[in-house]
Design goal:
Two copies of one chain form a homodimer. In chain A, strand 7, helix 7 and strand 8 form a beta-alpha-beta unit. The longest helix of chain A is centred in the middle third of the chain and has 40 residues. Chain A has 366 residues and is an alpha/beta fold. In chain A, the strands form five sheets. A seven-stranded mixed β-sheet of chain A has the order 8-7-6-9-12-18-19, sandwiched between helices. At the A-B interface, helix 7, strand 8, helix 8, helix 9 and strand 14 of A face helix 7, strand 8, helix 8, helix 9 and strand 14 of B. Strand 16 of chain A pairs parallel with strand 8 of chain B.
C-alpha cells in the first residue's frame, strides 16, 4: 500500500545489518516513525506495547524476533526460552504461536551453526507468504463485494469495519480491508464506516489513516453507532478481522465485534470475517469458553492521547478521577452470527463441517 | 444526592433575583462550576451546548427558560416564539416539548400581567414533581433489584448502565440510577459497569463521577465491552434511561443502547429502561421510523478533552487528520428487546396494551 504516495510495508529486514524495521503504530496517525528492532527485548516490547499489532503482523514480527534470538544463541534450550517469551507477549492472537512454532520447526533438524541463517530465511518466507495470503483474501472478498455491486450497480456500497484489519495489521494489503482495496482498484463505488474502536482507537487512528492514504471514501463513527446505521439501511456489508478462530467458526476479534455481529444479524446485514487460515485454532471449538481474553491496563480507557491545535501531543485523563476501569481486549462472536469466513483459500461457512474441508486443504498444502 | 458530602441538585431558581443556577456539566468531572442563567439565550445555549443534558433536566431547564422569557415579554406571540426556540435546541428528547407546553398551558388563560409569576410557579412545581417522579422510579426499580438479591443474597449484583441517567440527568435521584441509589441505601451489595458512552463520555465522566461521590462501587468500561461481560455471566441486570419512548414501548436513548439490548437479549440478561411517563410520546408507535435522531458535530468524535498530569485541560485531536466523522446522538431499541419500563407509576411491559393502561392512568391523574 501507499503512504504519501510512496509504496510502504509495515515490516522489513535489512539482512546486511540484521536489523528489522517497523512502523511505530502507537504514534500514528500523528507521526510516521520507522524504528529498528535488533534484540529479543526490542521485538517483545514492540509486540506488547503494540508498536506492531494485528494478528498477522504480530506473527511475522515474532518470527523475525525469534530469528534474531537464534542469531545470538542457537542452542535448542535458548530457542525454546525465546519462543516462550515471545508467545507470552500477547495471549489471544494465535498467529503469534503459529509463526514462532514455524521458525522453531524450521531449525529443529539444522546444525546450530546454520540455524541463524535458516531462521532468517524462513521468517522472510513467512513475510512473503503473508503478503500473498492477504492478496488472496482480497481477491476472494472482492468477489463478494462485486456480487453486491452487480445486484445494484448504481449504489455506493457501504461497508462497516471494526478495529484495524488493514495493511497495518499485516505486511501489506490487510485482511478485512484487502477486499475493499481490490474493489477500489476495480472501480466499484464504495464508502467505509470506520468504527472508532475504543479504547485504543485503532479504527479512528489507523484504519481511517490508511483508507485516507489510499483515497478510499470513509467516515469515522463511534463504536455505538453501527446498530443505528444498520437499522436505517446504511450498511450493506460488514467485514472484520480475527485474532483467533475456532474449528467451529467462532471468531475472537477486537472487543465490540460481537455487538456489531448481533446488530448485523438483527438487520439482515451480511457479516464477514477475513482471516488467514493461520488464525484458526484447530484445537478448540467453543470460543467463549476456550479463548483467553487479554486484559490490558486501565489507563488505555481512562487516558487518551492526541495532538492539540498547535500539533503538540498530550496525554489527558478523560474519565472521572479515581474511578476504576476494566479493559478487555477481545470478545468472541459465535459462529451462528458469521455469514462467512474469507480466507486465502476461498470463502468458508462458519461451521465445523465446512472448516474441516479447509483444514484438510491446509494440512495437505504443508 | 451529594457532592463532596454536601447535598446538591442540578438546577434551582433564586426567585429574588429571578436567576436559575445550573451545574455546567461540560466541565465535569474535572471542575464543578455553577453558572447563572437569566436570558432565553442563556437557557437555549445551556441546552444545546449540553451544559445541562438528560431528558428530564432538559425539560425542567426549558420550563424555567420559558418562564424567564415570559418575564421579559408576556404576550402570547412572544411566548409561542420563545417556546419554539427552546424546543428547537434538541430534536430528540420529548420532555423538552412536554415541559414547554406545560408552561404555555399554565399561562394560556392568565392575564398578561400575572403570566410571569404563574409560569415561574409552574416551573417550580415541575421541578418538585421531577424529584418526586425520580424517587418513585427509584422505589419501583429497587423492587426489581431486591428480587434478584433475594434469589441470591450472597452475590454482589452487577448492573450495567449506558450514558448518564443519574441525578445529573434530572433534578435529583436520576432515572436509571435511582433504583441503584435506593438499593445502596437498603444495603444490597452491588457493583455498576459504567459504559464510557462515546462520543461525549457521559458514562466515564458523569455516571462514574456521581457514583463515586455517592460511594457506589463501579468500573468504567469501553462501550464495546458489555457483550463480552454478558457472555461470561458478569452482568445480572441492565438499566438505562430514555429520551423518548413510543406508545408501543420502543426506546430512543443514547446511541449504543440498542447494541447492549441486543446483547442482553442474546444472553438472557434482563434489560430495563427507567423513565418518567413524560418521556413517552403517545402519538407514535414505531420508534425507528418516527423518532428524529439528532446529528451533532463531527468534532465530538474527532476531538477529546481531558486534563494532563499537571491538571491542565487540553482538547486534542484523537483521530486521523482529514478523516470525516458522523455523530448520531441516539438510537432506538425495539420494544421486543426491553424487559420492562420502570416508571413513576410502576413497572410496565414494553407493549402497546400495557402502556395504554399507563396512558389512562396518566391522563386521569391530570
Amino acid at each position: 500500500m501507499r503512504v504519501n504516495n510512496q509504496p510502504q510495508t509495515t515490516l522489513w529486514c535489512e539482512s546486511a545489518t540484521q536489523t528489522t524495521f517497523i512502523i511505530d503504530q502507537t504514534l500514528l496517525p500523528h507521526q510516521l516513525d520507522i524504528i529498528p528492532l535488533k534484540t529479543l527485548d526490542d521485538f517483545c516490547h514492540s509486540i506488547s506495547a503494540m508498536q506492531v499489532r494485528g494478528a498477522p503482523l504480530i506473527g511475522i514480527t515474532a518470527a523475525f524476533g525469534l530469528a534474531a534470538a537464534i542469531a545470538v544463541n542457537p542452542q535448542s534450550t535458548a530457542i525454546a526460552q525465546a519462543a516462550n517469551t515471545l508467545i507470552a507477549t500477547r495471549p489471544t492472537a494465535i498467529n503469534l504461536r503459529w509463526a514462532v512454532e514455524k521458525i522453531q520447526a524450521s531449525v529443529a533438524n539444522v546444525a546450530e551453526a546454520q540455524r541463524a541463517d535458516v531462521a532468517l530465511q524462513h521468517a522472510t518466507r513467512l513475510r512473503q507468504h503473508d503478503i500473498a495470503t492477504c492478496e488472496a483474501i482480497g481477491e476472494h472478498g472482492y468477489q463478494l463485494i462485486a456480487e453486491q455491486h452487480r445486484r445494484n450497480p448504481n449504489k455506493t456500497l457501504n461497508i462497516l469495519t471494526h478495529c484495524n484489519a488493514g495493511w497495518l495489521a499485516t505486511i501489506d494489503w490487510g485482511t478485512a480491508l484487502a477486499p475493499i482495496y481490490k474493489a477500489q482498484q476495480a472501480g466499484i463505488p464504495l464508502h467505509v464506516w470506520v468504527d472508532e474502536t475504543r479504547p485504543r482507537n485503532q479504527g479512528a487512528k489507523l484504519t481511517a489513516w490508511e483508507l485516507g492514504q489510499q483515497g478510499v471514501p470513509h467516515t469515522i463513527i463511534a463504536d455505538n453507532t453501527g446498530g443505528h446505521l444498520m437499522q436505517h439501511g446504511l450498511v450493506d456489508l460488514c467485514i472484520v478481522g480475527s485474532d483467533r478462530t475456532t474449528a467451529a467458526g467462532d471468531v475472537c476479534n477486537k472487543i465490540g465485534t460481537y455487538l456489531k455481529a448481533l446488530s448485523a444479524n438483527d438487520n439482515n446485514v451480511p457479516f464477514y470475517v477475513a482471516l488467514p487460515a493461520s488464525t484458526i485454532d484447530w484445537t478448540i471449538t467453543d470460543g467463549v469458553k476456550d479463548i483467553p481474553i487479554e486484559e490490558r491496563e486501565a489507563e488505555e480507557i481512562t487516558h487518551m492521547n492526541g495532538v492539540d491545535a498547535n500539533g503538540q501531543l498530550h496525554e489527558v485523563l478523560i474519565s472521572a478521577p479515581g474511578s476504576a476501569a476494566a479493559n478487555y481486549g477481545f470478545d468472541v462472536t459465535p459462529a451462528r452470527l458469521v455469514t462467512g469466513l474469507i480466507t486465502e483459500h476461498g470463502v468458508y461457512s462458519a461451521n465445523q463441517t465446512h472448516l474441516a474441508e479447509l483444514q484438510n486443504r491446509v494440512v495437505n498444502a504443508q
